[in-house]
Specification:
eight-stranded mixed beta sheet, six-stranded antiparallel beta sheet, 22 helices, 19 strands, 25% strand
């Protein structure tokens, strides 16, 4: 394609300047991409049934879809010509129904309020021209709503030398979204600080707080972390959606899961020490909360020590650590131990002190749950050793460890796999599935995420416990692994593949990142 024939000299100059700017900040873009972004060249239209442009053009709401049809809602039925035109574009039969105008307008306004195209246009506009506080507030609300609708776990605003970058963490992966100028990023910061009750003037100290918003009749909590970086304030907005993140243990580990029976047994013991481990964003808190909701909360005294409290759980007494007034983990634990607990939850073991506190509590006849940042179950034991944990108490108290991470789950629009690569890799009798794409999953092929686990349970008999203690003491834990109840990441991936929950490519990629080539 000869760009010079398609663009004017002025347009070419603009594209070259912008390309040079992107190169300086480490982003690769060619002139054609930039020209399309500026609408200097019209890109050939591909009709996406979830496209907001399409919905706006025909004034419709797509309520459902199956293999042969789209079900749409509208104020007035589309005429034969427009209906045929839409069916031709979408390559499916259209089944339409009218709904009251007021109901349609409410639904349609909600769709438009989280239109990513409008967000991008407004950001470009506000980057170039000044705007009042109300407009900036409305833009930030749109960004938050868009994040909630797309199950975004975190929104990052990272400051760099010439700009700030707004990015989403969606399904565990960072998605680069929008470039903000310095002034717009600072105004976002001020709005978030005001919403959260954070000191507006202090830009030199890390600060954290939160606020609550209502979205679609659901209460959504936002946790804000703001810290100074070399080029300005770094902002992280954690979206805490109870409807998505508070799950039951049966949802995470259904009855057909190979470890389900062992898990329900070990987490309901009267005393012991149980760990949920994994990297940041791996769903540790969700799993821990699911375990707590499985306990008999009406007939047990359950205390949690958290920093911060992410989700409020009924019939559980939750304590928020506040080191500024001297209420740290040590103080909280000493207080709780005098309050007749049955179950103690330590939100996260971050240092030597919290590790030792947790071990002592578990050895004194209580059931203790906690989380830790490690990659697998074995490394959790090594981490406790490194932090100076008492190996004798660990060996005779530890009930089990769940190491986990989240992997994308196939949408229901999945199709049968076209090759036997997954079948061979997982030594399976099942051909498996691969991603497809539909309205429900926004044409990504994936909808929500599922837990990939590495699990170990320590049987309670004294012979096994003594063998386990000697293995810990002599750094030969892996040699004693056969005496324990284990379920590796590979076995977990095999289960997810056989159940049709994940595709082979996703699971193999995750296993490679964990150091697995195959189970052998």
């Amino acid at each position: 394609m000869n760009i010079k024939k398609l663009l004017t000299p002025k347009q070419i100059e603009i594209c070259k300047e912008e390309k040079s700017y992107y190169q300086r900040i480490g982003i690769k873009k060619n002139i054609l991409q930039i020209a399309i972004e500026h609408n200097f060249i019209k890109k050939k239209e591909k009709y996406n049934p979830h496209s907001l442009e399409l919905l706006k053009k025909y004034e419709i709401i797509i309520s459902d879809e199956n293999e042969t049809s789209f079900f749409i809602e509208c104020k007035e039925l589309l005429g034969p010509n427009r209906l045929n035109e839409l069916e031709e574009k979408l390559q499916k039969k259209i089944i339409q129904q009218t709904i009251p105008v007021r109901e349609f307008n409410e639904k349609f306004d909600l769709i438009l309020s989280i239109d990513p195209d409008i967000i991008e246009k407004k950001i470009k506009q506000f980057n170039a021209f000044d705007s009042d506080d109300t407009e900036i507030l409305d833009l930030l609300e749109m960004i938050l709503k868009h994040g909630i609708k797309n199950s975004v776990s975190d929104i990052h605003i990272n400051a760099y030398e010439e700009f700030s970058w707004l990015r989403y963490r969606e399904n565990g992966r960072i998605q680069a979204k929008y470039l903000l100028n310095k002034e717009l990023a600072e105004r976002f910061s001020l709005i978030l600080k005001e919403k959260s009750g954070i000191d507006l003037i202090d830009v030199k100290s890390p600060q954290s707080a939160g606020f609550t918003e209502k979205f679609n009749n659901e209460i959504i909590d936002f946790r804000i972390e703001i810290a100074p970086s070399i080029f300005g304030e770094n902002i992280v907005i954690r979206i805490l959606d109870k409807s998505n993140n508070l799950k039951s243990l049966e949802q995470l580990f259904p009855k057909e899961h190979p470890m389900s029976e062992h898990l329900f047994h070990f987490i309901n013991e009267k005393n012991g020490f149980f760990l949920v481990v994994g990297p940041t964003g791996s769903g540790k808190t969700t799993t821990l909360n699911a375990i707590l909701t499985q306990r008999d909360r009406l007939h047990e005294i359950i205390y949690t020590i958290e920093d911060p409290i992410e989700y409020k759980i009924d019939f559980v007494t939750q304590f928020q650590v506040n080191e500024s007034v001297g209420f740290d983990f040590d103080t909280a634990m000493k207080s709780i131990m005098r309050q007749d607990p049955d179950v103690i939850v330590i939100g996260e073991m971050r240092d030597k002190q919290s590790v030792q506190i947790a071990l002592k509590a578990s050895h004194s006849g209580h059931m203790v749950f906690s989380t830790l940042h490690t990659t697998n179950a074995y490394m959790a034991l090594e981490r406790i050793r490194d932090e100076g944990g008492d190996l004798f108490i660990l060996a005779y108290s530890l009930s089990g460890v769940i190491a986990q991470r989240l992997v994308p789950m196939l949408c229901t629009c999945k199709t049968a796999a076209s090759s036997e690569t997954g079948k061979e890799y997982f030594k399976s009798e099942v051909l498996g599935y691969e991603k497809n794409g539909c309205i429900k999953c926004n044409f990504t092929g994936y909808y929500s995420r599922v837990v990939l686990t590495d699990i170990v349970f320590i049987p309670p008999d004294m012979k096994t416990r003594y063998t386990f203690y000697m293995a810990l003491k002599n750094s030969t834990v892996l040699q004693a692994w056969d005496n324990l109840i284990t379920f590796s990441y590979y076995q977990s991936a095999q289960y997810l593949y056989n159940e049709g929950l994940c595709d082979h490519e996703t699971l193999q990629s995750e296993l490679f990142s964990l150091g697995y080539m195959d189970e052998d």
